[in-house]
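Researcher: For the record, we're logging two predictions in this thread. I'll number them. Prediction 1 follows.
Model: Prediction 1, sequence and structure:
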Amino acid sequence: MASLKDIRARLAAQENKSTFTGDNTVYPHWTIDEGSQAILRLLPDKDETNPFFWVERAMIKLPFAGVKDGDMASKQVIVQVPCMEMYGPNEVCPVLAEVRPWFKDKSLEDMGRKYWKKRSYLYQGFVHQDPLGEEDAPENPIRRFMISPQIHNIIKNSLMDPELEDLPTDYDNGLDLRISKGSKGGYADYSTSNWSRKESALTEAELEAIETFGLNDLKSFLPKKPGAVELEIIKEMFEASVDGQPYDLGKWGKYYRPSGLKALETKKDDELEKAVSNIEVEAKVEAKVEAKVEDDIPFNVEPEVKVKAKDTASKAEDILAQIRARQQAST
């Protein structure tokens, strides 16, 4: 298990170097009411080779103009695919390889933001205060937490505080994390979240739960790493998305699907229409509850601005032309 000194050294090195699933084991803290507070007690990762007590999750959202061979041309669907950079510093993400240069061109910044990776961080621990009043909490009280970059940065920055003597995950001298939900600019805001001021030990019941159920190996909950075939599918889907094409269930459904889109090959048109409508609603809810946080955009850029549809289409054509020219040159 990494010490506080080890974690501080790793975080400092990173700073210097750098220029919901329906599973009720995941505690949905983002659904608490505005003005309320959830209190969590974080635990270490089972994987002792992990220098931190969290793992990073990086996903890319690919929007499509509806689903092919349906009557939903105007109903956008979004497919999430894993970013290869999540699996190690030497991995190359085909989407980000194309997107990074876009930030050097002011006219392509908005497109770059749309396809840039979205980070979240996977933690585990106990829920000490539950404002949701869950009635179907799982038997295993060790829950997983999908934490946004805003809350993660509060956790990360606090670890560099020289007055912090022990890890917050320490069984005897740990700290509770108070997640406070507010609102800013129409988005959920967690900037007032902080640690409890008093250290405390885990209870006998919590120690018994760790003994009974064991800690989770957090990396085991990351999406499956794409192989060569999946990477080609991701590249193809990315190009189709930029080109404004609909999602092709027959071609890509075996690999990646929009959230909530099941085996629709057998569904009738009205059922397909209803399923895609539900997906559209889910996407809007997700966008509403997430904090508005920029995620490691590779260049200093201006705040996001809206562009006309005609301009966006023109940019998409230019981008695709560049991608295809690069592919032809490499063959």
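Researcher: Logged. Prediction 2.
Model: Prediction 2, sequence and structure:
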Amino acid sequence: MSRFMLSLGSSLLIAAILCCLTTAAQDILQFRGTAGQGHFAAKGVPITWSDSENIAWKAELPGLGWSSPTCVENEIWLTTALDGGRSLRAMCLDKKTGKTIHDVEVLHLDDPGPIHRKNSHASPTPIIDGRLVLVHFGGHGLGCVSRDGKVLWTSRELKYHHQHGPGGSPVLFEDLLIVNCDGTDVQYVAALEKTTGKIVWKTPRKHISEARLAGEKNAPMGFSTPLVIEVEGKPQLISTGADHVAAYDPRTGEEIWWSEYDGYSLVPRPVFGHGMVYICSGYESPVVYAIRVGGRGNVTKTHVAWTRERGAPLNPSPLLVGEEFYLVDDGGVATCLDAKTGREHWQRRLGGNFSASPILAGGRIYFLNETGVTTVIKPGKTFQRLAVNRVTGRTLASLVASDGAIFLRTDEALYRLEERR
């Protein structure tokens, strides 16, 4: 494990434990790594690659999906949608060869409806838990597939209209699969039994502005992924929605605290460290908020440590590395801030548009834009670019790193990138 990961202290280790996912160091069990914050323990990952350099394999993928890969042992799991989104599928590839092991239809839809041009009907990332693979397709439904390729259960009880297609990924806490359900019609957070799909709790969003609910502002939809943290020895589920972020008891759905802002259609996943959660407020004018945990009720005026508008992203999640806080906005401007104060260390334009979230792997930070270009930098208070790499294809899914390799998904294929000696 790199010194950058160690410097985060115990908070990330606690978050990983709370996910209740038994894992080897190279297993990637949920969106943004096993702790959910963009850190990957893989060593020896490549710095440079191209369409002809450092490619172990390239596997063509059917349909269209923007879920990031998850990995366990020699398996890679992801989702895709065929037939215009009517066939929603879970796929398993051999990690060493890229060959397909399973291709399973989880749900079949008569009319999946429209999606945003930057979305798919299979964008949420699967969760792996032991022998189970848990998949979420937003308002289309959820399902559980065994690692030997059998559909164990499906559920379509969590109804909401996401308008632009499914977005946020689920999170696992103990035996509960928890999802944000923020539609144009209804907004709530829900937990299901992982083994049966039965709803355990369902908590409505309580703090959406009256103007937004009355239709005077854009619809209160959201596409974010929640994060489980520990505060004073107790778990909290941090969940962003239209006009507020809230902390819930993940066992019961009871709200603990909330903080308000003006925003909707949220995408970035929160991160946690230094006693603060860092969240992004969504469209139209994003703001980054650093909020001290430990409060009760409305903490808007008491617990916001700092805010930042310049360089705040609409889609990519932030990345916390030690005492540095990294952002890349949708227009390709990367920023490094002091995580405790919000003071700017540097800001640089990387080039291109961005939707994927940056990751830390092998002691380096990787930023992937929407046209297959990855910029690699050295973490630190001064900007140090190490490499710029390109593959062919459209790239909206976030990178993952495992077993000395980077896994990169395009609109047509999945690459295993590693040093070829």
